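Q: Hi! First time asking for a complex rather than a single chain. Here are the components, and I think there are three in total. Is that enough to go on?
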Amino acid sequence: MNGNNYGWGLPVAASSYAHDIDFGIILIHVAMVAIFVLWGIFFTYLLLKYRRRDGVPAEREHEHGALKSLAPDIVVMVFEIGLIVFYAIPSWSKIKMNFPQPGEANQVDIIAEQFAWNIHYPGADGKFGRRDPKLVHFSNPIGLDRDDKDAQDDVVLANEIHMPLGKPTLIRLSSKDVIHSFFIPEFRIKQDAMPGMVIPVWVTPTAVGKYELSCAQLCGFAHSFMRADVIVDTPEDFDAWLKSHAPVKQEAPTKAAESW
Amino acid sequence: MSTAVAAHPDAPTSGVTNAKLGIWLFLASEVMLFGTLFTTYLVLRMGAASWPRGWDVLNVPMGMVNTFVLITSSVTILLAYVKASEKNKSGFQLYMGLTILLSFAFLVIKGFEYGAHFAHGEFPSTSIFNAVYFTMTGLHGFHVICGIIVNSGLLYLSGEDFEHPLFAGRVEGAGLYWHFVDIVWIFLFPALYLL
Amino acid sequence: MNTHDEHHGGHHELTFWEKYVFSVDHKVIGLQYLITSFIFLLIGFSLMMLMRWQLAFPGHPIPLIGGLLSSSLAPNGVMTGEFYNQLGAMHGTIMVFLGIVPLAVGAFGNYIMPLQIGAPDMAFPRLNMMSYWLYLPGGLMMLSSFIMPGGPAQSGWTSYAPLAIINPGQTVWLLSMVVIITSSLLGAINFLVTGLNMRAPGLSLDRLPIFVWAQLVTSVLLLLAFPPLEAAAVLQLADRVMGTSFYLPSGLIILGQPLKASGGGQPLLWQHLFWFLAHPEVYVLVLPPMGIVSEIIASGTRKPLHGYKTMVGSMISLGIMSFIVWAHHMFLSGMSPMLGNFFLVTTMIISVPSVAILTCMIFSLKGGSIRFTVPMMFALAFLPLFGIGGLTGLPLGLTTTDIYLHDTYYVIGHFHYVVVTGSIIALFAGTYYWFPKWYGRKMDETLGKIHFWGTVICMNGIFFPMFIQGMAGQNRRYFDPTAAHHNIPTQPLHIVSSVFAWLLFLFQLPFIYNFFKSMWHGEISEENPWQATTLEWACPSPPPHGNFAKTPRVYRGPYEYSLPGHKTDWFPQNEEAKA
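A: Yes, that's all I need. Here is the structure of the assembled complex.
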């Protein structure tokens, strides 16, 4: 599945708003190609028609054509205003400003670090356990306080994210050290993870499959190796996975640490 | 600077001499520099969880004295310019000398303030407030030092060059710069000590 | 400071040092800038050729010179991630701050602008010399970071905090930036005073050549946009050297260890301050080239530029608008999405004057008698190629589509189309155009045409594939693109880009040869080889000290070509009309 997602064009679209973004990209590129081709034809015509020929002097135009030269500007402006009003602002608000209610979404905290993605699920109780920078340790990269009762069933993973199909996943994005950027090409979602800030991101996957999360902001020497698998399951499979995962972590944390 | 490569008499110009225009443009860039620092201060302060009251951590009386010292020096450099344009050499030297003395006084008082902070173990790295305080006053202090160098240079040159037709213009340029340094402090003092 | 009175007679014999090294003559300084910045461009380009090997063949030893590199940079000739990031950061910095800006402003501005306004020199010749003598040490300091402990900067030319604060090697970068910025500031003041105060009689603002306008607007941008970066760099330096936390939030944990810093700072602040400079900087990179292209198009078509006033107005509005679009580089940085909407609108507005300028340039061709000389060919190539650069800015400036395309190779393709096939092509055009002015000789046409076709084809071969890679979601600044699965299908395109990059280098050899050969052995040029109207052609080539034997007087606008009834098809600005 993974291999077929990518090619020389846009990757497979697998989130609820991926088509909104694709629509804009395709529309703009069609317009760009049209502008460039028309313009190129005109340009070539001018170069051929007005190349230097003996005995043909340049025609001196007087500045009456000011309006004419503004015509391309007006066309571009109308097109851009249309894009802003009917496309960019509405879809930008939908993606970056309207978040699903925490109750109806699958919640996950993602804590980026050099050079890994730490994934923190609240578990069955839906409550995130307390995280404390003082507790950060090789075996506990996010500093989760396991004594906190909310943390008992929390699931912590590295470089692997699971999401249920068709249900919004609400991500709270943060970083432990430098700026990283959360980018899943198939979902058309990107957001910088800024140290000192917690930034919400949401996505509703629309196809079961395995996708790729990569870091899109230079974060150090191993920037290009900072990636994670994104696995979208049916809601039933997702719940089963979450359930099967929680107790293992709780009972044998040392074993889990070894396997990293 | 040089107006020897002067424009043609009836050439279209801005109506301001090269030197003066140059100084004004330089000051425009300085405004952007300190504007950036003030913006930084505002942004950091608004984003901070807590911010100390200036008067709790800084020595307001000393800052106050320094404000008066600088304002006085602005007056003396203005008088130095007046004397220079009146071709009164000893008057110029008196007021320019006073200006330089006052600038040194400012630095000495600032030095005592810094010394007291260091003695209390307060360094730029201690807190974000200290970082802002030391950087802004430090850069301002650097500008004061540059002013002292320029003003001392003019005082020194006045020995031989006082009769030069452009001399008063140079004093005016130095004066503009010095007023700017003064104005920066007049913003810095309330922003850091009183707010 | 008042001893500089060369045109009042009273010459004294200049020593070699005064004449060629610490010269106060704007022409010598201009040529110093020209040669130095071309060398920096070549150095920056060489760094890129190394990177292109790693991108095309990740993990393979670099051929030929791989074995010469130290084992910490390239063990067994295979580049490390640190080394790749160092090359990337230095490539960007050198090309922008040490290559294109000094070439466009320091070299062309310095040499040509005073001539075009009929001035004997810059307003402050010594300040001018100081600008160069800050630029060169600043540049050498930047290069010296390669041999400093910790190596050169490796956090991108944007130097984003906190990475730039915790990474080794950034300190020298910041210090050199402060020096280079100071040099540019002095230059900007000098240019503005010269342009406003030193114009020849009759040369009112509405008769200024477009190139002079471009330099003036550029100088305003440098004057007002650089100080914030200088302040920002000082703060970052303080973070690195004095242990302050301007850009460091509380509670950072670096590789498992808590960072010893007071915290309380904001990483976003750096980005705002940086882009507040760096967006106007884009216009610093393109306005002087636009000026060059306008000059060449006017003389190459033998007719007045279409819409002189529109062009000047557009340049001024570009300059003003460029101060309120900076955060379109930061849509996804975590700043408020509402702010994103604001900057979206300003960004779309700024595209209007850019379109107007390009439209005027192309309408200028209509009705002309186009002479396909080498400078004209470069100037004409600028139009469609810069057009691609401009058009591809559209999906990046639009918030929604930027979500996907931000920080991908699409961005790299976009800005390289703007500054390489745009600015650098135009700077080549200017070099061929004004070479006779500098040396009194012409550059060779055949070699010039080989250089032209090779350069244009190779540049497109390098940058066009990047749009496809960006569309496929390939992230920029990846040391090993194949590490992410979604990059693998477009990996062959990296090989295409790389091959064209190395070919591009080969096609610069005729240019270098042509430049030095023509300098001494080129065909002697007549005084006004392009039969142009502007003032720089009203004095001998190369102009003597003090430029004009007699201050010229200006009677008309800058582009009086093909005026009916006039004996020739050009009517110089300083030629008195027969009654």
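A: The mean pLDDT of chain B is 91. Let me know if you'd like any chain examined more closely.
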